[in-house]
Amino acid sequence: MLKHRGFPGRMPGSDYQFTIRRAVHKKGPTKIVMRERYRDRKAIDRKADELFMWALWEHFGDEPFERGNLDAGRLSWLIGREVVWAEDPYDPEDYEAMLRIDVAKARVSFPQIFEPEAVAPDFDEDDWD
Known about the structure:
Layout: H1 43-60, E1 65-66, H2 72-76, E2 83-85, E3 98-101, H3 103-109, H4 111-114
Antiparallel strand pairs: 1-3, 2-3
């Protein structure tokens, strides 16, 4: 499993994780599934999506990237919308699966990330792997 060095491990001040520490051996990787985002989601959940999307954009830009140690649960909130499979066929249970940001959709969902004056979130050094 590829570890994305320099990627934030979690959302500051929360238990929302962005990466996992080690591969799961017995059951295999957690499956990435498209989760429905309802309008009445809590503000903290929407903020976690925004910060995760910001980290993906800063780390990978519009280039394809390997799932690696990115958290499947967090990816599941974005998959099929702002994050799409970069290969076909794809395996949602593979740590080596390739993904990419659908920039057009991400700009609509998270416009503040793509503004020229966008400021990086304040992550503590303890939040970065």
